[in-house]
Amino acid sequence: MPKINVLPKEISELIAAGEVVERPSSVIKELIENSIDAGAKTITVEIRNGGITYMRVTDDGCGIANSEVPLAFLRHATSKISSEKDLDFISTLGFRGEALAAVSSVAKVEMFTKTKAENFGTHYIIEGSCEVLYDEDGCSDGTTIIIRDLFFNTPARMKFLKKDTYEGNSVAAIVDRIAISHPEISFKFIRDNKTTLTTAGDGNLKNTVYSVMGREFANALISVDYELNGVKVNGLTCKPISCKPSRNYQLTFLNGRFVRSGTVMAAVEQAYKNSAMVGKYPGFVLNLTIPFDTVDVNVHPAKTEVRFSDERRIFEAVYPAIKNALSLGDTRPEIKISKPVFNQFERMNVEEYRQQILPSTEIKQTKNDFSVKTERINFNVAKSDNKSILVDKIELPDIPVKKAEVIEAKIKKENISEEQLEEILLIGEAFNTYVVVQKGNSIFMIDKHAAHERILYNSLKKNIKIGIQALLVPATVTLSMDEYNTLVSNIDLLNENDFEVEDFGNGSIIIRALPSSLVGVNINDLFSEIADKLSGSNVLSVDKLDRIYHTVACRSAIKAGNITSDLERLNLAKRVLSDDEIMYCPHGRPVAFEIKKSELERQFGRLQ
Ligand code: ADP
Ligand code: MG
Q1: Structural domain of residue 131, as residue ranges?
Q2: What is the pTM of this model?
Q3: CA of residue 71 to ligand 1 center, whole Å
Q4: Which residue CA neighbors atom 2 of ligand 1 most closely?
């Protein structure tokens, strides 16, 4: 039987230290949080060798009174709570009174600190929990704490540290995060004698994000400001077009403290559904302010996952907060050509131009991409692959204007005023794909497939029926057994949504009618795609409907490369530019880009 020992204090302290002090970044986090709790307005963080040999945090906070300095380094010594009741109302970042004790047990710590009330400051040195110096000092108000040689007395833990660069990057990430959560504090970060971050501390979140994450990200952000049931949601979220390939730009702060919350992430991502590209994630900086007694912050100090006593209330506030922000703040993506093609000094005069450029240029009479083409695939009578004949109920004389009206009917023209119609000037279409129009002081390039797909999808979602098209001869579609089983179990759903489908047994289904916008599509392909989208036992029924809408919209929409008439182009542009909901296709690709006249003028050197 092994004997039970009560561990000596030094050993139990070392074990406790392991929980708080894992690596330089966890030390820096604790030190900065102490400075914030001390009411600092300016915080400087300096590290060398990834923090392993040297870390310094200097603040202009309240300082520690001379008589209390040694106490700060004792376990469970804290100025932040004094009774059990306080635990329910924790407003400071630290409260366990562990950090300084833990750090000083595994490193060499030096502190200079002075309160306003005292005429002199304190110089204190403690190494591996042993006090080395406790003296008066003429330092300025606030606190400087220097940590040298982390884990100097615990070589086993030293081995777990990674390369300096890795540790340094992880310190930098902590400083970034904390700086963003406190725009009212000015931060400076010095890494191996180089200043790598300074924030203004002017209280403006956007300025802080700009300093930390760079211009490109900061410029793509929309303000969020919302409150529901006592949950305040403030901050910034990115435009759907600027979503990132990873979740690294998702920062949530709870009452000023960085946290990870699955609920917040899910609520934000849900709000971007159908506007962010598949595989991309919104970047955001959100600060949640909620009453202190409704959140359980008593989680492991080194971890950031937070539990809410009412997760649903959080979701219900965050989701509309983001939805609102997106509907108010998202504008069409603008094309900015980063480098002007010519600048003033490169400009040639007419003579130079004739001599240098003209002789070497073969002037081709290229096909005019913007020419008007009125031919259109005859879509009122079309054959599907399995030889059924589809007959459109609408009789169409074969003249372009009438066809365009049908497209217009497809594209639903509600909301468009006469003035809006006149405002838009059709320039043409590039590559049979991008409709180009002029409106006000901008040119818009519209991806006709993406735009039409979004229009149809929105109509379907809003229950604006596209209409049913009966097939003259019903089509029999033979499917794989998986596809067949999926479709048969979803027949009701399909039949409620403008299809008429019947189970024919033995892997076949009969199609008697379709949404009329689908006339002319390959029926076999259509139903395999629908089966594929509906397969899987855990697809929710709302999602199923959404997937059917996606498929119908995508298959019905005008395709890139299809020939489109001028009137169709114009109608499409009118719809797109008069409806802010038509910003992205249902897969999240942008529908249109804007090029401002001023941008062109800048490019051509008309505007300096
Ligand atoms: P906690 O922050 O959980 O209270 P710490 O070990 O981090 O525990 O700090 C112990 C105490 O030392 C704090 O409660 C605070 O009173 C004091 N202290 C630490 N750092 C600072 C600082 N930068 N400025 C003023 N007081 C500080
Ligand atoms: Mg602390």
Answers
A1: 9-198
A2: 0.59
A3: 10
A4: 94
Q: What value does the mean pLDDT take over residues 42-56?
A: 97
- Which atom of ligand 1 is the closest one to the Cα of 142? 24
Residues 238 and 179 in one domain: no
Q: What is the mean pLDDT of residues 80-93?
A: 59
Choosing from 56, 66, 78 the residue with most ligand 1 atoms within 8 A of its CB, the one to mutate for a pocket test is 78
Residue 202 pLDDT grade (very low, low, confident, very high; cuts 50, 70, 90): very high
In the predicted model, what is the mean pLDDT of residues 281-289? 91
Question: Sheet holding 121-127: strands in order across?
Answer: 130-137, 121-127, 108-114, 142-148, 54-59, 42-48, 186-191, 194-198
- Whichever domain contains 513, its CATH number is 3.30.1540.20
Residues 149 and 245 placed together within one structural domain of the fold? no
Q: What is the mean predicted confidence (pLDDT) over 404-409?
A: 40
| 34 CA to centre of ligand 2 in angstroms | 5
Of 62 and 550, the one with more pLDDT? 62
Residue 63 and residue 186 in one domain: yes
d(CA 503, CA 510): 6
* Mean predicted lDDT score pLDDT of the chain: 79
Are 99 and 33 within one domain?
yes
Is 210 part of any domain? no
Domains identified in the chain, total number: 4
The answer on 378 and 458 residing in a single domain is: no
Q: Which CATH number fits the domain that encloses residue 24?
A: 3.30.565.10
Q: Is the CB of 517 under 6 A from ligand 1?
A: no
Smallest CA-to-CA distance from 273 within 334, 218, 326 is with 326
Cβ(63) – ligand 1 distance below 6 Å: yes
> 428-438 b/e with 16+ CB inside 10 Å = b?
bbeeebbbbbb
Place of tokens 């100090």: 301
Alpha helices for 136-250 (secondary structure H): 155-158, 164-181, 205-213, 215-219
Q: Are residues 451 and 577 in the same domain?
A: yes
CA of 95, nearest ligand number: 1
- pLDDT digit string (tens) for 110-168? 999 999 999 999 999 999 999 999 999 989 999 999 999 999 998 888 888 999 999 99
Please check whether residues 322 and 354 belong to one and the same domain: no
Co-location of 349 and 325 in the same domain: no
CA-nearest residue for atom 25, ligand 1, is 63
Any atom of ligand 1 within 6 Å of the Cβ of 565: no
**Which span out of 100-104, 456-460, 574-578 was modeled with the highest average pLDDT?**
100-104
In the block, residue with structure tokens 């590209």? 277
pLDDT at 391 over 50: no
Give the chain's length. Answer: 608
Instruction: Check pocket membership of 520 for ligand 1, CB cut-off 6 A.
Output: no
Ligand 1 within 6 A of 98 CB?
A: yes
pLDDT of residue 421: 52
Proximal ligand: closest to the CA of 100? 1
